[in-house]
Write a structure and sequence with these properties.
Elements: H1 3-16, E1 17-22, E2 31-38, H2 41-51, E3 54-58, E4 68-74, H3 75-85, H4 96-101
């Protein structure tokens, strides 16, 4: 994969992304989740084109708001994506141990 692209996306993710473990319901095992929410459609689509996952459109709620785009990956795809971004991340580095054990 293009290292310049990965470095660029890692920079965007450091500033605009979120990372965490979330459950999809009571009694379900939490899965690693990576997300980017922005009003820049092209940039959010670049994450989707590069890593796959889910692309969600949220129309403006009020006239003075902007439309929002969200990219999301979970579980195994999130782990693979994180491992691609990890060498270039500065702010959102987390302990690799939980990622190695995430096989959902």
């Amino acid at each position: 994969m293009d290292t310049h692209l990965l470095a660029y996306l890692a920079g965007v993710f450091d500033g605009e992304g979120t990372i965490g473990y979330y459950s999809k319901g009571k009694g379900k095992k939490p899965a690693l989740t990576l997300e980017v929410k922005m009003t820049d459609e092209k940039l959010v689509k670049l994450f989707h084109e590069t890593f796959g996952g889910c692309l969600i459109f949220k129309p403006r709620a009020k006239p003075h708001h902007l439309d929002q785009y969200r990219w999301k990956v979970t579980a195994h795809t999130a782990r693979v994506t994180y491992n691609y971004l990890f060498p270039y991340l500065r702010l959102k580095r987390i302990d690799l141990e939980p990622l190695q054990g995430d096989t959902a």
